[in-house]
Amino acid sequence: MEIKPEELIYKLQNGAQLPQGNLFVVYGEEDYYRQQIVTALPETLFQGVDSADRAITSFDKDTDLNELASIINTYPFFSGQSLVVLKDEKLLAAKAESEARKQQLDKLADILSDIPDYCTVLVSASKLDKRTKLFKALKKTALMCECASIKLNNLSQWLDGQAAAYGARWSFDAVGKIIEYLQPVDKIPLKLLQQEIAKLAVYAGERREWTAEDVESIFSALPEASSFAIINALGKRNLPEVFVLLAAEKKKGTNVLPLCAIITFKLRQMLQYVELAGRGFDYKGIVAELKLNPYVAKNLQREVRGFTPLALTKAILDLAQLNIDLRKGGRDYARLEEILLQLLR
Q1: CA angle, corner 209, sides to 205 and 213, nearest 5?
Q2: Full-model pTM
Q3: Is 101 exposed, middle or buried (0-12, 13-18, 19+ CB in 10 A)?
Q4: CA dihedral for 197, 198, 200, 206, sign (positive or negative)
Q5: pLDDT at 112 over 90
Q6: Which residues pair with 132 in a beta bridge?
Q7: How far is CA 26 from the centre of its chain?
Q8: What's the average model confidence in pLDDT over 92-116?
Q9: Distances 58 to 15, 104, 122, 125, 134 between C-alpha atoms, Å
Q10: Does residue 186 carry a pLDDT above 80?
Q11: Exposed, middle or buried, 236 (CB in 10 Å: 0-12/13-18/19+)?
């Protein structure tokens, strides 16, 4: 049986009835979910049992399968219930490339296929090879919970749930601001986002609508939040503000390469918008083609009016050359300022 991570976490944290079975498998790249499940399951399983009497065994690395089998099949005397947590990434993510490795995975599959009623096993891994006998065996008997990374286009629902937990809601612009912050990020930092939302809840107090201004005030720890101010000023063609913000980053000791990457991302996005408009795409067509959040699209539509495809292309190429030169010991902030001066003058 399969279950979504949000549903499983809710059930564990609210004492709701879980599907029958004593084998849980949580896997996927989003460790934010996996960590919550690993933390919540013992509290659900051992309700009313003193922590000293809880029979919990964790296998994190170099797992001895004979020992694992022995622990699973040993009756716990104090609570009458035991929990085994298997988090050995090297073992679980292994591919059956050799006969020895295949035998090891097959043995693990056999062990997990016969778990006594008094024992619960939680398997947690960032990766599982779906081609192995192990995965196929787990899928037949376990409660499977895939914790895939949230895509930026699906973040709004997660954000709504977080706000609702505090009895609050986001304004349209607030959600858009967060999504705009996170556009250049490869993996959305859900744990960090959750921490910033907790700060915002304290900051907002009794006020139940959270605004874009709140996000700007509180979300200082988000990746690229400070450099976002630079591309925001760039989009407004505010050269003095761009230079002030660059000077602040230089003073903080910020490496210029990540800044170049953020600025290049923004310029490429603007160039794509301008080129699609030049090919006859209307606003809705551009939004659909680039898969833009409505808030981001609205800002982008306004920003591109001050830029030509030629100017954007030249700046992008100059930034690429700057990246090459930096690796050879070339100038950093001074050259970046020159590039942006040529773009915005």
Answers
A1: 85
A2: 0.69
A3: middle
A4: positive
A5: yes
A6: none
A7: 16
A8: 84
A9: 23, 19, 9, 13, 19
A10: no
A11: middle
Length of the chain: 345
Higher-confidence residue of 313 and 229: namely 313
Work out the average pLDDT over 210-225: 79
pLDDT band at 329 (very low <50, low <70, confident <90, very high): low
CA 24 to CA 121: how far, in whole Å?
Answer: 6
Task: Please tell me the distance from the alpha carbon of residue 186 to that of residue 182, in angstroms, as a whole number.
Answer: 9
Per-position DSSP letters for 190-214, written without gaps between them: HHHHHHHHHHHHHHHTT--EE-HHH
H helices of the chain, in order, are: 5-14, 31-45, 65-72, 89-92, 99-112, 133-141, 155-164, 172-182, 190-204, 212-218, 225-235, 239-252, 256-278, 283-290, 294-303, 309-326, 333-344
Average pLDDT score over residue span 276-297? 90
Mean pLDDT score of the chain, rounded to an integer?
88
Q: Quick one: tokens of 167?
A: 């009895």
Q: Do residues 163 and 197 make contact, with C-beta atoms less than 8 angstroms apart?
A: yes
Torsions phi, psi of 122, nearest 5?
A: -115, 120
Contact 88, 61 (CB under 8 A): yes
pLDDT at residue 166 greater than cutoff 60? yes
Question: Distance (Å, rounded) from C-alpha 137 to C-alpha 110?
Answer: 8
CB atoms within 10 A of CB 257: 12
> 26 forms bridges with which residues in the sheet?
124, 145
* Cβ-proximal residues to 16 (8 Å cutoff; 6+ apart), any chain: 10
Distance CA 117, CA 131 (A): 28
Residue among 113, 127, 139 at smallest CA distance from 1: 139
Per-residue pLDDT, 331 = 64
Identify the band that residue 197 occupies on the pLDDT scale cut at 50, 70 and 90. very high
> Does residue 31 sit in helix, strand or coil?
helix
